[in-house]
Amino acid sequence: MTIRPVSLADIAKAPLLFLPLFQSQSVADAVFFRAIPTPVQRALLAFEKKYFKGEEGEVKSVWFADGSPERVILVGLGAKDKWHVRKEPLLARRLVRSAQAEKIFSFGVPLLPDCSSRTFAINALMGQFDYTKYKTPPKEGWPEVKEIVLGVASDKKATTQKEIAEGLIIGTEVNATRELANMPGSDMTPALLAVAAVKIGKHGSGIKVKILDEAAMRRLGMGGVLGVARGSQEKPRFIIMEYRGGPKKQKPLVLVGKGVTFDTGGINLKPEQYMYEMHMDMSGGAAVMHGISAIARLKLPINVVGLVPAVENMPSGSSYRPGDQLKSLSGKTIEVLNTDAEGRVILADALTYALRYKPGFIADFATLTGAAHVALGNYASALFTNREDITEKLMAVGNASGDYVWPLPLWDEYLPEIKGTFGDIANMAKNDRYGGAIHGAKFLEQFVEETPWAHLDIAPRMTTVASDLLAKGASGVGVRYIVELARGYPDLMK
């Protein structure tokens, strides 16, 4: 997909034009309206008066036998006073998906005032994506929008072009994350996830990639990762990605992503209705990998490290068991109460490893708990941090990126609930009916020491929902958040 900016007057030259309008607007309010032929103006006004109300989601087409444009598609935005930041990405997706449905391969659209061309480009690509790897393609091929002409103010064309280029990079990395997460567990093992990371490093963007195998992890003492991986014939991997784009003295931002390539729950087997999606339990790891790729391609002036413990959680005669005691890399013992609370166990080792870099900030991304999904529904990831003073900044990162987050408490009152009986710390509260997401976050906190840290439980956003206006499957959550976090990293702790 290409997106190129043109002046608002020139947008009228597009043969097919999308025109987004609020309920209070008329087509006559469009900047380019006077640039189109008078007969087309009259026809649009007459059609609008009779058939178009501007209600949110409303889409109506007007054809012209002789004129430019040849077709105008009116898109309703609803009431202007109810427009907010979360609706901006949806507009770009709606336009692209509408175009795909009608096999429209090129169109023009004016950028709404105060809207970001970067956001438009990101979401146009996200709206285009569909996971077709295992589908037989139709004879005519999959419908794809090849070109979008974006109408902007003449004095903003140069800036817009730069923002579009950035948006296309970010959108590409989001979709690459979705591609990885959508792969079935048989085709996305820990070893193959490591191969995907190595490929990212070979793109020439300055990312160094190192892969630790089982033997290396055993020498280090990563008892958490090794314990979870015991039940699978697929051997674990520990992925390390480094990008040095900032000053030498800058403490790195360390990103940690959960990489469970398939999660059966282990001996504590999951209910069958939830099992089929568990190839997406490595979504956090995929987001970290492609988030760093986006940072490098954008040449952001930051030092960043990505760590992804990659395992498969399977039941077998060699599986770790409820009641086992695992010695983590930190030296702390983890008392296993439930083998389906495996994500926090492998992240414990990764967070401890992160401390080797003396980071300025650690952020982990993990599809950690169904409890977060219960708490927040489908529209935001749960945010936890050991620095309450920057909570608003971390929420602002979510609002700016489109990967929305909402804070939950991390109070010390929850700590006794995960105290081990025979080991140092239990991987679940003994009564985990309530506060499961908090217990998971509180567990992770025990492995970051005093380092500023945030935990994003992205389980609520692992898969798309109908209101996302995206293809079914993995959402690619985390990549946009990582990029925005990296942009503001130098000022994060100020």
Description:
By secondary structure, the chain is α/β, with parallel strands linked by helices. The protein has two domains: 2-150, Leucine Aminopeptidase, subunit E, domain 1 (3-Layer(aba) Sandwich); 172-492, Aminopeptidase (3-Layer(aba) Sandwich), CATH 3.40.630.10. The protein has helices at residues 38-51, 88-101, 117-128, 157-182, 190-201, 214-220, 223-229, 272-275, 283-297, 343-354, 370-376, 391-401, 436-445, 479-487, 489-492; strands spanning 2-7, 16-21, 59-63, 71-76, 106-110, 147-152, 207-212, 237-244, 253-257, 259-263, 303-313, 325-327, 333-335, 361-366, 381-385, 405-407, 425-426, 453-457. A hairpin with a 5-residue loop joins strand 12 (325-327) and strand 13 (333-335). Helix 4 runs antiparallel to helix 9, helix 5 runs parallel beside helix 9 and helix 9 packs across helix 14 (479-487). The mean pLDDT is 95.
Write the layout of secondary structure elements.
Layout: E1 2-7, E2 16-21, H1 38-51, E3 59-63, E4 71-76, H2 88-101, E5 106-110, H3 117-128, E6 147-152, H4 157-182, H5 190-201, E7 207-212, H6 214-220, H7 223-229, E8 237-244, E9 253-257, E10 259-263, H8 272-275, H9 283-297, E11 303-313, E12 325-327, E13 333-335, H10 343-354, E14 361-366, H11 370-376, E15 381-385, H12 391-401, E16 405-407, E17 425-426, H13 436-445, E18 453-457, H14 479-487, H15 489-492
Parallel strand pairs: 1-6, 2-4, 5-6, 9-11, 9-14, 10-11, 13-17, 14-18, 15-16
Antiparallel strand pairs: 3-4, 7-8, 8-11, 12-13, 15-18
